[in-house]
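Could you join me in thinking about how sequence relates to backbone shape in a protein? Label the sequence line and the structure token line clearly, so we can match residues to local backbone shapes. Once you have written the record down, we can walk along the chain together.
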Amino acid sequence: MANRLANWFQTEREKMRELTAQEKAQYVWSYYHLWIIGITAFLAISIFLTVRITTAVKEEWLYGMFANTMANAGNGSELWKDFTEFSGLDLTEKRVEFNAEAYFDYLKNQAKGNDYYNAFVALTDGGILDFITMETPSLEALAQSGRLTDLNLERCQELRDRYADRLVYFHGVEGDIPVGFDISDSLLVTRYGLYKDSCAIGIGARSEKMDTIALFMRFILEEK
């Protein structure tokens, strides 16, 4: 492998030896622009997440991602204001972060090459993301990524028992695994218009904030 890379580098260097600076730039862009764009996007996401994690408040009461919606559901939105008021959470102590700027579908080539999906992966693997909402079929497919919590786990028992009639499943070779809850009749659809028809919520694979997630569920389902 090392020899192949060395030979490739030597060949490319010989090709450009006789070129002017402008011709070299044109050559690199013509043959490697997709790599340049991909690497630039990856670095931009990495830098953004690094800065956010290292400079922002270290913890949130709740971090939610509302994927595949054109509705205003981010920080400061009506949804955000209504929930933070309902919850009574002290925002001077920790933050409530709502992210409504993600657009990807795991049903389409497992979202490969999608920067929004890459951001979802980084947030989930970093233990930041607590829940994600999207259309029900898309959420069920997203479970293949391994980044949704298996609701059979002990830490999910209270939520699983409370909303047993709402469970949605990933249908794998080892059987059906509950990976989310159907919230198609929730305020996300009926009041805030995030989705038109089906809607489901899944819990980030590394989230431990079951109490706050339960609070959000009570809010969108208009429970006391």
Strands lie at 60-67, 95-102, 131-134, 167-172, 175-182, 200-203.
